[in-house]
């Protein structure tokens, strides 16, 4: 089931309820059960809020460490609907939700909630066929995509550390959009344990056990070069997103030895260090060889086939999430040139040891709109 569950499952409810009852029974049977505990229950600190307004939308580089929970909703916009007013309404809803002012939050604190909105190629072409984001993704190998899981007019990416917030915010946004949009597909995901990869930078492990998203434009200079669109003015401060939902053959990959798994990725499973040595943040030394002339990083290793220098493109920023039922990955990349993704995947298609363990079941690209504020509504530079 790829859609995010609209309601908690009975099993999940029983699991939580059972744990609560068990905790209550243990407390009731303790020697001090007759004495009230006057201490206030401890609570985890609420994450700092993330501003929804500014030069860029939140949810791409902010917060720096991506939140643990996500739902991506892809929808079509009714052909009779003007995009400008719809996007302005969504922007107002985003400001209200992320500030905690929206009554539909039902008292939940927004914490580090972010909502990122993008528009698909069809809508971009209505504003200008030469604009960044006006081109659809080509088809690639190892795809099994149903019609409604290909493309789309509107992306709403909702992320938060609090898992309870995400479905509430999804419902609020869909309520605000009303019958102006029709949902195509949605996908929930969660981040694995974060692993330090450099000072102030972490990346999660994926379902295959490897650290995911080490390489990317992480400094401000790198992001200006490879991530943010510089022009035309209507899109400046935005970026291009690619979403690919993939099923992973976890069972078959797990049957490989650790050495075979590491040869697939070109990195050590435990540390993330390239097979050519260095640190986890080091780029792989693609020319490094053993004394008998074998490449330390195999010729079909993922880090070699997807290496930006070898492909001849910029870096993409990845904020990917693991999924289940079936196990997989929601791959999300942000870049200021769609060729960064398409050229990379074309090179991987030719020979990448990781691809035989993947099947893509949904695919789309979006122009992530520039940032907004009260005086410049979301999408107004593009759609008026």
Please characterize this protein's 3D structure.
- There is one protein chain.
- The chain has eleven helices and eleven strands.
- The chain has helices at 10-29, 83-99, 121-127, 165-177, 220-226, 250-254, 258-265, 302-305, 308-311, 338-350, 380-383; strands at residues 69-77, 114-119, 154-160, 181-190, 194-198, 201-204, 239-248, 317-318, 321-323, 328-335, 358-368.
- Strand 9 and strand 10 (328-335) form a beta hairpin.
- The protein is globular and about 65 Å long.
Pick out its properties:
27% helix, two-stranded antiparallel ribbon, 11 helices, 384 residues, alpha+beta, nine-stranded antiparallel β-sheet
Total strand segments: 11
| Structural category | alpha+beta
Q: Tell me the overall shape.
A: globular
Strand content: 15-25%
Distance between the termini: 38 Å
Radius of gyration: 22 Å
SS field, number of helical segments: 11
Return the string of H and E elements: HEHEHEHEEEHEHHHHEEEHEH
Mean pLDDT: 90
Largest sheet: 9 strands, antiparallel
Residue windows where pLDDT falls under 50 for at least 5 positions: 1-42
Estimate the helix proportion, in percent: 25-40%
